[in-house]
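ARCHIVE ENTRY
Sequence with per-residue tokens
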Amino acid sequence: MGGDVGQRGEPKGKEVVSTDSDNETNIEVDVVDQDVHNFDEHRLSDKDNDDPTYPVFNPKTAFDPDFTIGQIFATKKEFKFAAQSHAIKCRRNIHFPKNEIRRIYAKCLDPTCKWMIHTLLRKNEQSYQIRNLDLTHTCAPSKKLKSLTSSWLMERFLQRFQSDPKRSVSVFKEDAMYDMKCEVSRQQAYRAKSLALLKIGGDPEAQYAKLWSYAGEIRKTNPGSSMIIGTEVNNGVTQFSKAYVCFDAMKRGFVAGCRPIIGVDGCHLKSKYGGVLLTAVGVDGNNNLYPLAYAVVDKENGEIWEWFLSVLKADLNLKNDEITFMSDKQKGLIQAMEAVFPGVDHRFCVRHMHNNLKTAGYTGLAYKQAMWKAACSCTEGEFRCRMRELKQLNEGAWEWFNDKPGHQWSKAFFSEKSKCDMLLNNVCESFNSAILDARGKAIITMLEWIREYLMKRLQKNRDIAKKWKGRLCPRISKILERTMEQVVDCIPIKSNDTYYQGSSVRGKNTWSVSLWTLNQVDS
């Protein structure tokens, strides 16, 4: 049965509802008659003549709610969350003795306390309305709150985790206790942080299932770009194993204005499922790093490196006699390089070689200086001289270099075709450091982070380049200026229409032009 509604929307009848709670078979429940008007979200309901006006709860105040008679909540969840927040704010414990489809009663857990809120389901709606309340607490506040759950903490501090996802659990726990003025356990703080990072970064497992759709969007929005996904079957289940990404803009930029040298490296991912990110990074005309391609793989070994290099070779149309590689001698990489790029120039990072030298037992500044002098030698004769000095220092250290030919780590043997004399694989290490924040995210979130980083980097470099003056890039101009300062005591003697000999006025040997040729700048 339903009764008429008066001017304040008070129900004048009862409706019989069947329920099993409290061993009742049939009980009478107040039913609020439905308003005939559409309510605008987050504001008071519309007015029309003498129809009642009810306040609508604003979700933006969910952590600091105010309750009034007649207030409308869009869902049961919205009301319970608001009641939970109110209880935490007042530092009281509450419960819901009636939590049914038609009604929700919230009461203070202290049986002597008067605090309570009764809400009822509006007729023909899914929203709930407060019909009775008493917000007076006659009990004492508490430091231990049952309403303070990990999910509530996650929602309360979500924005802080978005701005600082690396915030430690202990720091977050202290901040929460200071703000809430109540106890927060370390487990609660840990679970709240995990839930927040999951909500910010997305579900890692679900993102793997969306990779193929993501690859389709990459190809659609970036024509000419490559995204290759590989799978493997484990115990009859097809699983993701690897994914390669290279954007068309990076390909065209490499061909148009980069030096023919590529650094390759791998770094570990810190997400739930781990893995390794393989990277290929070039060097642009201003000696800046230029990311080319990257791949997410489940592990790093010779087979994986061979796959990555094969895809990279086909994607960039690389020729063995036109390209130089730089690496840190990763596991399986040398064999893979020989298989995909037989006979290619392959340099090794001198810093990593020095670390290996120290691991072999040859530590100290003397060994470091001797090695770097050999690495920076300009001619083969100078290189042999430096190696003799190393042999005089320690023959064992000299023998350590027997299986490390000079063309892998000394400028004296570098091919001129690379137009680059770098001895360190800094371009890869700098790129891995730049994407450090992305390496702990779910796979699609990480790939999008890297894509946006590349887009912003390219545009930033374009904006900077517009302000350059002259024919040379700024870094190249500075290198030339430093070189000219170093050879001010040399007198050029013309040999023919093409070559000059440089003689030092201080009686030194003739000046070598090999480094200039190695770092040649096309005009």
Summary: Confidence is low (pLDDT under 50) at residues 1-51. The chain has 18 helices and 16 strands. Residues 462 and 488 are 35 Å apart (CA to CA).
